Amino acid sequence: MASLFVTGARGLVGRALLRGLPGGAFNPVTCLTRDRESLTRTIPPRSGWRYIEGDLDDTASWVHALPGHEVVLHLAAATGNASEARFRAVNVEGTRRLVEESRCAGLRRFILVSSIAARFRNRASYHYAESKIEAEALVRSSGLDYAIVRPTMIFGPGSPVLEGLARLAGA
């Protein structure tokens, strides 16, 4: 049984993943979240799970939790109307730190959830897409076994895309 370290556990995809994760599929499961209390209220941790409060910007808040895991699932990202600096800080530099520390801790596999925007041809002023393509390059050159997933749109309760479509439909 593999062990899993998840970033962005409290986000839309992270919460859906935790709710749907089959019991016993991974043990232990460690989730990095900026708000442990909120995540615990939403999705109570199962046996073998632990939630740690921290931020990719603050390596000391999470690096101690990496050893003993085999797989990193990197969901954390700056999205939406963030500034170019925030996209770089989280999506590029956060990924860089996570990749480096994962290698140092002996993790074997790294899964990055990126974005279809990384494939857009005209990214000149699309800072989110640029940050995602840089993060992908960091993962590719990491020396770790990796997978990169590029969802096109993410729908679900509370998703900005779904809320926007509902507004357009007049719901």
Give structural notes.
It is a single chain. 35% of the residues lie in helices and 19% in strands. The protein is of the alpha/beta class. Helix 3 packs parallel to helix 4. The longest helix is centred in the middle third of the chain and has 21 residues. The radius of gyration is 16 Å and the shape is globular. 32% of the residues are buried.
Q: Using the CA coordinates, give the radius of gyration.
A: 16 Å
State the shape. globular
Mean pLDDT: 91
Structural class: alpha/beta
**N-to-C order of helices and strands:** EHEHEEHEHEH
Q: How much strand content do the residues show?
A: 15-25%
Give the termini distance in whole angstroms. 45 Å
| Count of alpha/pi helices | 5
**Percentage of helical residues?**
25-40%
Provide a brief overview of the structure.
The chain is an alpha/beta fold and 171 residues long. It is built from 5 helices and 6 strands, in the order βαβαββαβαβα.
Secondary structure: elements and pairs:
Layout: E1 2-7, H1 12-20, E2 26-33, H2 36-42, E3 49-53, E4 71-74, H3 84-104, E5 109-113, H4 127-140, E6 145-149, H5 160-168
Parallel strand pairs: 1-2, 1-4, 2-3, 4-5, 5-6
Helix pairs in contact: 3-4
